[in-house]
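hey so i finally got around to running both of the ones u sent me last week. sorry it took forever, my laptop kept dying halfway thru and i had to restart like 3 times lol. anyway pasting them below in the order u listed, first the sequence line then the structure token line for each. didnt double check formatting much so if smth looks off just lmk and ill redo it

first one:
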Amino acid sequence: MRLLFALVLSAAHSFSTFAATEDILVVKKSFSPHNVIHYEAHIENCKLVHPFISAYWIMGEKGGKVAKLNFIQKKFLSPVVIESSEQEVEFTLNALNDFDIPGSDKNFKATLSNCHPVSSVSLDGQIIEVSEIYADGKLGLFGMDVNFITLTGKYPDGSKLLRKINNN
């Protein structure tokens, strides 16, 4: 009887715990355009949990293989968490340091809405939902030399955002 009770409790616990990752942002680039970086939020029971945000490659040029960022890529492209709670994580990407983004501190927020994360950034005094960053450039000695980025997303009124930002 005790064994049956323990099994029922164990099964009930496993069904009550919901853990998932969900993409919040992708970074595409002009060089090797089929290889895309995905940023995902880590969610458990409708709460953001450690490591909160992580990044990985989908290598479209290699049949969709999933790959980790290498050492140099991690330095520039891994999310750097600034502040976190169960409902919102603020993070930045070191790769954006060279860009002057008007009205922005270059910090992204992943906020849970109905248990689904939404990525946003402050731009020109508005909170903009951002779904994609496109980087135009060429392969350089230490990675990609970026000429400009384009942010894609939605304004608060639901209209489409497509903003080109030049490298300094």
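and the second one:
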Amino acid sequence: MVAVFVVMMIAPVSRGPSGVAGAVMLLGVGSIVAGIAMLIGEVMCLAAPADSGAKGLIIATVCCSAIKICLSIANNVPGPNVAMAAVGGLTGLGRVVLFLRAIASYAGFHERGDRAKIILIGMPISMILMAGGFFVPPALLMGILGFVCMVAMLVFSVMYVFLLFGVGGDLRR
């Protein structure tokens, strides 16, 4: 996501579609790598203790990720597959954050659970505002709102990565 943002900002408008095509290709490759890495991480999380209350969340997350991957592969047929893959990915992401919150609270790291709650609330709100920004009539306002929401999504993504590494490091101690 960061790389696509940088490529889109750096690519001159005069180049036309070539800069956009490079960003889309980079996004596609990044999505495949990220999807595989997330699925591996989720499968590793299946080792969570049953009494933590987080086992069901991670099982549901792996199921959502499997659905997302299957629908992404079947994406050759346009239509509802794209939307269903996006819904599977977003619900999987939400469940991972809920899992991290539950496992952090189980281990006694309540401040990490509070950070997970902030991410869980902020990320969807940013997405909704970004989608709603397309319906704002003035083009300048739409551009400003889109940029602010993109920066907010970037901040919440970085917070998510730090939460992942933080909970992992706390649990290893």
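quick thing i noticed on the 2nd:
The chain has six helices and no strands.
anyway thats it, ttyl
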